[in-house]
Amino acid sequence: MTTTEQQPVFKGLRKIFLPIKTYELKKALPMGFIFFFILFNYTCLRNIKDSLIVTAPNSGAEVLSFLKGYCVVPAAVVFMLIYAKASDILSNEKLFYATLSPFILFFGAFGFIIYPHLDALHPAASTVAAWQASYSKALYWPLAIVGNWSYALFYILAELWGSTILSLSFWQFANQICKMSEAKRFYAFFGLMGQVALIVVGLLGEHFSKVPENAVAGVDPWAVSLRWLMGMVFIAGVLTMCIYRWIYTNVLTDKKLYDKPELPGVSRKKKSNIGFWQSLKVMFTSPYLGLIAVLVICYGTSINLVEAMWKGQAKIIYPNPNAFNIFMSRYVIYTGIISLIVVIIGGNLLRMFKWVTAAMITPAMIFVLGSIFFAFILFRDSFTEILASIGSNPVSCAVVLGMWLIMLSKATKYALFDWTKEMAYIPLDEEMKVKGKVIVEVVGGRLGKAGGAWIQSGLMMIIGLFSASAVKLTDIASYLFAIFLCVSGLWMFAVKRLGRRIEAITVTQQK
Length: 511
Hints:
With 511 residues, this protein is mainly α. The chain has a single domain, classed as Growth Hormone, Chain: A. It has helices at residues 12-17, 25-54, 62-89, 92-114, 118-121, 125-134, 140-147, 149-177, 180-210, 221-250, 266-271, 276-285, 287-317, 321-352, 355-379, 384-389, 394-425, 430-464, 477-510. α2 crosses α9, α4 (92-114) runs antiparallel to α8 and α9 runs antiparallel to α14 (321-352). The chain is globular, with a radius of gyration of 23 Å.
């Protein structure tokens, strides 16, 4: 993707790691730190929500599909309605604070108030087990959600953090205050900061999960870990709001860094000429926004089809929450290191090649690696003797293979998918950057994960109607593989179509 603005020339390591002019650091650095803290919380919450749900009493990785499909999606729709209305009333700055505050207050309360009183808040594990034994196996996993309702609420809000604070609030702000020429350089730097956040979260998560090993007798080790981790999430959220305020008072008032006549969203607030439902209609009737939505939905669906099965295998090896969180923390560290390398490469690819070339790498990567993973799951019994001869087994091998698949897929997602997707919003007008984006990111993002969740949960419930035992994800692996191939193919097709439209817009702007 090209632009008529002349790109600055950098040399040596500066060109690779920090292609930003000295005076631009006043704008890029605080934005990078906001991204750092938001991704810090996102990664920390992602690890904890999985540890809570997967290792909860009477629960398992199968519950994730029901939560994503039937709990997170309705919550995302409600949030979208509230956010779209609030965007007409509040300034962009106040909207950011109003969106962020409820999240950090809940997560702080969970670690210090809710979790310590679970015995009074949750039904007994034996009671839930009796429910699961009494009713149809189609309801086996939904009943686990009822029995662990506070964990489910934590999971819902942790999932929404990624859609609302990271994908929506941060990137909307970045797209509003950055020009296309800046985006090609700044967004790669944000990516580097984000990958550093992953490594820091992994190191701290593993450290605090080991702290309770020396706790006094009678103290719940996981409760100690949660207090430390939720305290960090709360502090990171407060720091995010402080830096955001600093940008408004020191960066957006500097004409050299922000040359628009009004602050972000001010003209939109005055006009307010398009309502939420009109925005929804535009998205479903706009081929351009629709293609962005297809990218978001296909990513969420394809990665969800693989990730849930991988976590189910990991639970077999790491059955308690602290052990599972240590495993996830190490996975995050490795992901951060790999992503740093890919971000450096991706940032240069983004500046060297067309948009469509950079955007195609992520779906191609997931298609190839996902196919290998599913093939192993389906035929792993054939490798039992070979793996035994080298001191391994199918479950351990599936966990390692799945981890590498997810790590490489996440790395290309952070380094290329997110950047190319966000750049596709820049040609839109201010109104649709906000209301079109909230629909695509929050609802589209949720529909992506829910697509995989509905497929998985639907198949498990249907088979469960005729089964005497709970249905596992491995029981439906062949169906999931076929659907995965179709979704990946649709994703690559949408990238090509959107690339043509972006090229057409670029040519028009150059005339």
